[in-house]
Please model this.
Amino acid sequence: MTPVFIGSEIYRGSSYGAWHPLHIPRVSTVMDLTRALGWMGEGQYRASPRAKPAALESFHTARYIDALHQAEAQQAVDDATRTRHGLGTTANPVFPEMFRRPATGAGGVMLAAELVRDGGVVHVPGGGTHHAMADYANGFCYLNDPVLCLLALRRLGLSRIAYVDIDAHHCDGVEAALGAADDMLLISVHEEKRWPFTGALEETGGGRAFNLPVPRGFNDSEMAHIRERLILPALEQFDPQAVVLQCGSDAIEEDPLSRLALSNNAHVDVALALKQIAPRLIVLGGGGYNPWSVGRCWTRIWGALNGIEAPEVLPEPAQQVLRGLSWKRRSAGRVPPAAWVTTLQDTKRDGPVRQEIRERVEHLRGRMAPARHGAVDHVQSATSLSAAESARSGSPPTHP
Model:
C-alpha cells in the first residue's frame, strides 16, 4: 500500500514560547519540504483529526483532560493544578494551543492505527510525545500519543505489538503504561545519564521491555550494530503484527539536548529495516530541537518510506524552505552550515563500536527466549487500565 502522511496546519506558528526548546517549527517544515520536493502524491496526505476527550481517556484520566482543557481556555493554571498535573511548568508551559496541539497529535496516531488495519505504512511526524503520564504532563509532553496509538492497535484485535524508540531520551511514559503488557514488546535506545534518568539496562518495565542506554558520542556504526544484533532479532522473535517506531531526531549530533553523534542516515536505516519486516508500520516523530536537523531527518524518512532517495543537492524550492528557518537561541542558527540548507542527507558518522555497547547488547540478547510465533495471548483492556493506574501514582518529575 502507498504510505500515508498525517499532518496538520495547527503546527504552523504554534510554539511553546520563545524561550522553550520547542519554539522551533518542525512538522510544518516537513510538510513544506515534502511538497517542495514533489514527494506528496495524490491521496497520500491526510489532515489529522483532533482526538476527543473520550478517546484520550482510553489512557489519560478525565480529571487531567479537563485540567488541560481549562488551562488552554483560561491561559493560566493555579498552584494546585500545577502541582497535581504538571501544567504551567518550565517544561510544560501554558500556551495558546496546549490542548488542541497535542490532541491533534493524538488524533493523528489513532487515525494511523485505523489506516494500517489491513497493512501499510503511515508517517505521523506530529506524534511521539512519549513522556506524558496518565494524570500529568511531563518532559514537553501533554498527552502520550504513543500509548494511545498502541492501545488503538490493540483495540483492532492485534495481539503482538512492538514499540521501538530511538529518541535520545528514554520513553518513561510508554514504559510506565505498557511495559508490563504481555502483548507488547518495547525496545528503547537512549542516552545514559540523561533526563528522565530511567531506562537502565536491567529495567524491564515489569515485562518484556528492552532498555539500552548508550554513552555520549554514540555513532552510526554503533546504531547499526544495535539494529542488527538486538532490534531486528528481538522483533523477528516476537513476530509483531504491527510496529510503532518513535523516531526522535534529538540523537543527531547537532541537537542541543543530547550528547550523541548520529547522522540522519541511522534513523533512515532503522525505519527501512522495520518496514521490511513489519506488516503494519507507524513512524512517529518525537524529540528534535535543531530546526534544520529535525526537518531534514523526518522529510528524508518520508522519502525513504516511499522508495525515494534524496537528491544530492536540493532543488531551489526546498532550499528556500530551509533558508526560511531560524534558530535564535543557538549561534549556529544565525549562519547555518551550507549542508543544512542544500541537502537532506547527513554525512555518515561511522566509528568504532565500543566494547561497552557490545557487552550491553549481548546482555540483552541473553534475555531473549526461544522464538514461539503466535504464543503470546491477547491481553484484554483491563491490563492497560491496570498499567495506567500505576502510571498515575507519584508526583511529576522535573523537566529535561
In short: The first strand starts at residue 4 and ends at 7.
